[in-house]
Inverse folding.
């Protein structure tokens, strides 16, 4: 990526801090939270070749735990956040043990089944989760006296979290562990022969993916100040998978592009029509049939083909 | 807790198990033969139930409603297999995403056409009364559902084990390349199995209507149950789907009766135990 593009991206990320348009600043917060969520799934899907259809489980669990601990139990925000992150990472460690018993479609089915369990629990364990009504009344914290209830300070906080998450994920991908994760995606048998513990590498990545999804979950619950079973629904897991695939799986900035696309599409569309599910389904069909490599490379290929056609005729 | 409690809940468990068998036998066969995790299967179950409901409301009988639900889903499943899945070739992720996208579209269409209100689907008049056996009164509709599931299971077993078509399907499940090489029309088999599986899901939806009623989200409730069944029983195995269905039905029913809030967690315990000790399921080979 060129230096100019990086500067442009930096300016774009700083823009919501200076403009006087709360709606756009809030949308930008939503995009960055979704981007962290998508980047966490990208560790599995893009770099690990492990397609999970239950990733909402980690975002949702962290969101529920933060809300439950801070609202129902009455703990301070800092304690609630740390406990939520630790518990969600522990859950990812346990789920990873189960899901990595299989690979390919089997892995996908187990993650889907586990994700749907949590959704069912959130709906039915009314005493803890509030059932369909969810948990309301989450207030935003005020670290160092900075009131996060206004859009701009909240965005600033989300931006810092986003940059930390992206730097950490980039560092992981470039590390030896990240290299062996990609190796086990491309050549699992060869990696095993070379003495790598493929299972352990995948499991560590699974836990990390769960942890960063939990970080996104904390952003999510403080942004909405509310959590309900919808956060754990299959559509949420599907949306984040769509972000990863649409942006280009296995690239660092792909999830940000995908998150921006899906969040903007969702906000724009829901302002005009109520049929988001239908549209989500149609987008899935369109991407798979027309752009199997993802939106960014797919669009490039399509443009290339369009450009190439007239010259071929000449 | 009395004997009566156990007998009634036992029958409920068997009825749910029967419905799960209708749902998951097709899912399992499709996966076994075509290596496609058909995530539209729950949506076929729900759409089949809605179609059956509309047929009933148009004044036709229950039997016709069941057939209509099955036939409509067979047509839809066949169209999806021919029109979409076949074009994707051997790309499992693309197949999963397409079936997932289709399930969202179907769910939204159902919401548009039949609104968001849960709708009761009445049992046929002849099966509304209780059935008296050994001094206990059983709801006769549930006995009927169990009987239907057993008949379907027997018919499927005969089809797979005793007919030429079944032999070809088994050959395809065991070794696709070899089957193709021997001149078995694999493409036509795919279409037949996909139609059959979809039809069973649709019929299951109508038959399940009087027990579960029909509501938006029924697809999302049923799909994970089908996944649990095939993970338990082993993918692509008819016996596995049969045993897995009744185990899952029993665990869910008794879990719900004894610990209603936590039934969903209890439901997944057998799956977790199975994954830990035998990842391929009871009757399956290792999950691919």
């Amino acid at each position: 990526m060129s230096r100019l593009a990086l500067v442009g991206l930096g300016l774009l990320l700083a823009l919501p801090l200076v403009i006087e348009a709360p709606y756009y600043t809030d949308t930008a917060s939503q995009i960055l939270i979704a981007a962290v969520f998508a980047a966490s799934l990208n560790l599995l899907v893009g770099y690990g070749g492990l397609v999970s259809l239950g990733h909402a489980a980690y975002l949702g669990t962290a969101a529920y735990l933060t809300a439950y601990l801070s609202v129902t139990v009455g703990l301070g925000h800092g304690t609630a956040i740390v406990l939520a992150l630790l518990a969600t990472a522990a859950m990812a460690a346990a789920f990873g043990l189960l899901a990595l018993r299989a690979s390919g479609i089997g892995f996908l089915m187990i993650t889907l089944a586990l994700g749907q369990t949590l959704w069912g629990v959130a709906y039915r364990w009314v005493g803890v989760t509030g059932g369909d009504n969810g948990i309301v009344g989450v207030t935003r914290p005020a670290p160092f006296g900075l009131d996060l209830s206004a859009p701009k300070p909240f965005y600033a906080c989300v931006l810092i979290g986003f940059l930390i998450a992206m730097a950490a994920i980039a560092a992981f991908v470039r590390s030896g562990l990240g290299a062996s994760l990609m190796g086990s995606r491309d050549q699992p048998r060869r990696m095993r022969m070379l003495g790598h513990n493929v299972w352990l590498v995948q499991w560590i990545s699974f836990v990390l993916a769960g942890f960063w999804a939990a970080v996104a979950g904390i952003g999510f619950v403080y942004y909405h100040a509310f959590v309900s079973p919808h956060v754990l629904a299959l559509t949420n897991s599907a949306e984040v998978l769509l972000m990863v695939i649409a942006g280009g799986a296995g690239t660092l900035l792909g999830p940000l592009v995908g998150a921006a696309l899906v969040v903007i599409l969702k906000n724009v569309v829901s302002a005009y029509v109520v049929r988001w599910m239908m549209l989500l389904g149609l987008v899935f069909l369109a991407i798979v049939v027309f752009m199997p490599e993802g939106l960014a490379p797919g669009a490039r290929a399509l443009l290339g083909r369009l450009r190439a056609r007239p010259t071929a005729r000449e | 807790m009395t004997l009566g409690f156990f007998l009634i809940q036992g029958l409920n468990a068997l009825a749910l198990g029967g419905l799960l068998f209708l749902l998951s036998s097709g899912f399992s066969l499709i996966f076994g033969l075509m290596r496609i995790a058909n995530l539209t299967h729950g949506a076929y179950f729900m759409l089949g139930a809605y179609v059956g409901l509309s047929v009933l409301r148009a004044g036709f009988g229950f039997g016709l409603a069941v057939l209509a639900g099955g036939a409509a889903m067979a047509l839809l499943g066949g169209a999806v297999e021919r029109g979409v899945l076949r074009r994707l070739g051997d790309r499992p992720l693309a197949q999963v995403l397409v079936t997932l996208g289709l399930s969202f579209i179907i769910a939204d269409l159902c919401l548009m056409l039949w609104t968001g209100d849960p709708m009761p689907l009445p049992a046929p008049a002849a099966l509304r009364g209780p059935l008296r056996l050994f001094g206990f009164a059983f709801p006769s509709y549930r006995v009927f559902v169990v009987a239907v599931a057993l008949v379907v299971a027997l018919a499927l077993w005969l089809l797979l084990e005793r007919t030429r078509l079944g032999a070809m399907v088994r050959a395809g499940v065991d070794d696709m390349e070899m089957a193709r090489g021997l001149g078995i029309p694999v493409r036509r088999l795919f279409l037949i199995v996909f139609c059959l599986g979809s039809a069973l899901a649709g019929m299951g939806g109508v038959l399940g209507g009087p027990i579960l009623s029909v509501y938006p989200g029924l697809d999302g409730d049923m799909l994970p149950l089908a996944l649990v069944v095939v993970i338990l029983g082993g993918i692509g195995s008819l016996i596995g789907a049969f045993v897995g269905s009744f185990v899952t039905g029993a665990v869910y029913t008794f879990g719900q009766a004894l610990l209603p809030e936590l039934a969903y967690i209890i439901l997944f315990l057998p799956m977790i135990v199975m994954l830990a000790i035998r990842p391929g399921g009871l009757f399956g080979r290792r999950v691919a």
